[in-house]
Request: fold
Amino acid sequence: MAGLLITLPGATTAGAAENVVRTDQSVPRSCFAALLPKNTAGTDRRELTSTVDGLVQARLAPSSDTRQEGDWDIAVFDKDTGAVVAASAALRTHEMAESFVKKGQKLVLQACRYAGPARTAVLGVDFLALSPQGTPTGTPAAAQKAQMVRVQTPAKQDKDRLLGLGLDVTEKGDATSLDVVVANDTDRKTLADSGFKSSVVTADLSAKSVENAKTDKAYAATTASSVLPSGRTSYRHLYDYEYEIKELARKNPGLVSAFTLPYPTWEGRDVVGIEIATDVANVKDGKPVDFTMGVHHAREWPAGEHAMEWAYELTNGYRKDPAIRGLVGKTRNIVVPIVNPDGFEISREAEPKGDFSRFDYEMKRKNCNVADSPAAFATGVCKANPGGRERGTDPNRNYAGFWGGGGASTVWRNDTFRGAGPFSEPETQNVRSIVSARQVTNLITLHTFSNLVLRVPGVAAVRPPLDEPAYKALGDKMASRNGYVSEPSWALYDTTGSTEDWSYWATGGWGFTFEIGNVEFHPPFQTGVVAEYAGLAPAAGAGKGGNRQGFLDMLANAADPAAHSTLIGSAPKGYELKLHKTFQTPTSPVLQPDGSTKPPIYVTDQLDSKLTTTGGRFAWSVNPSTRPYVAGRYGRDPQGPAQPGVAVANPAGFPAVNTNYPVDQTSESFTFHVDGLPKVDNGKFSVDVAWASPDTDWDLYVYDAAGNLVTSSANGGTTSEHATLFDPPAGDYKAVMVNYAQADPAKQDDWTGGVSFASPIPPTYGPKEAYQLTCTSPRGQLVGVADVYADRGQTVDVGEVCTRSARANKERNAR
Reply:
């Protein structure tokens, strides 16, 4: 097998090596914990010297029959110091260890046979020469000071406009502001030219990153064990996650199983997960599935730590805590700590830099897809390439749920780049494979940072689902434990293509995003992981249980039959039941780079879950048969007519141009009155103004009688503004018009407008959908078919579906 040879612009490939490693014994131990003596049982090694300043890539692959490949791991050590340089410890023999080396550095490659029958594996080693700074295009310009700033966004329109500037908008925000990374003077100018008001939160992000690394080192050196279930005191590397997952499985047979997801990453890495349940190998036992995942975004390290600690919590708790033992016995728990291992490995191994420049790999967010980059940026490995951290796709904008709309970027280098199409990325395909094949009744995807528990919808224009009251109650309960704010995702800002906006609308399984912490993407371990997980100061959940208790609340919900649906019936032993559903769902109208849209893309989903019967009666926990996308939307019935519209007279005079509102109060205004019940029932009002030229810019702000800003609209490049308030209280309001710009200062382009009202939108109810239930004998013969309708909280008796399905189906439909 030839080694993987990669040529970078301005770089050379040197010292390629290929060998077969061999050992007659497998030993389940860490390959990266220490460089072991020569001829240690279960190991083989090679010594070599780097001929370049650049990268070493050491790969393992199975030598022959992949069905007998077993599990080999690899680690690269510095020979002089014994320090680990790179490692890989996934579940098979598909390993890649990669890191930076210096010319003349002496290395030892240690291959370890962890488990399985394969006595040999193929070792491929490549050295990739790189120019200074680890970049293939020469030494980059000196980084400018990166800062975190808080931008005032008092209305949804402001958030939408801010997202359109192409800046690195974080997940931290509230009703009136969003935190944004400004990496350089170009970003600062973009923000200044936009007219947004902002204040500095962190003056020097690079200094903060270096400080955090020192803090973590000191904490680990002085703390023998933390209160976390694993006792961990520092952030894990990718190889730590991989090794700990298979060690949990090895040490807890029957309870814990490690598995490899079906789609390798763009760089060829395996994505690994862990499942925890009684009789864990029997994945077709019909129990509800609770799915927890972390690190869609590479730089959000606490997300992976919380997921991994949750796996330890369940494993340890099953042995020691009767309450956890009971919940584990009623559920199946899937944990994928690192959804995006390519990106995470780069971010975690990068030097603490924190300046958010193109080559600040510590702050990489996306995956390692190169297909959508311009040709000039499409060469080189992900850890060192002309596009730097900016290359790749945001996995959490790549799911099919409303993909292609606002809240995601069409530009390849933007941190929220959505990808070429829905589910174009292996990371999202992996998550889809689990949700589509298992009855995932509960799902949490972990991110940083904003102290939020987010639920669907991700887009304000999408009305809440009929499930909204129960959905909100569950989010509120978890938020009461971690001290976060529970709200719809759009309340932060519009996002499309996110995890739960696909999983929930397609399956009906509850889906939430936790935005962990309130300060940074990966703050010091003691605060960002230990305190947030356990509910200790300074976390918002101090004394309330923290994320640990929030996760337990979610698991209790998964175990509660009232939170999902249940099929019961009887079948002979060894027969297999399958629930099937195929459907198409449209994306959003697909936004184009020029601002136009194309028709939605129809995405086909197929849900197939299975139950193997044990003989006699069975109970199968499933999601409702009617997916929420078609079930209907939440609303309220009008209790009266809507108020008639109000015509507005433009006040006399013409205010001067003002680009500094509200510091500069120069403006003009008009007032209007909103009536209430029993006279009218207003579901919303909209203040609508228009003018002639798109180069003119009027901004609109609406205040209540107490002087509170209740809604605004301050876009640019348009000929209108529309400020909307839903369910407005009765009372007097004032609309303030600010003359932000005039197309021709010598000619007044004035506005006209009015106020319109609309009734509440009543609840809408869609058609009920059925599952197609089939039964197959142990010989593979189809012996039973039925259509099954099941609502949330409902138990449906499908009868003897394997022996008298036709009659049972007619009897059920007749009831």
Remarks:
- Residues 201 and 798 are 59 Å apart (CA to CA).
- Residues 13-130 form a domain with the Jelly Rolls fold (CATH 2.60.120.380).
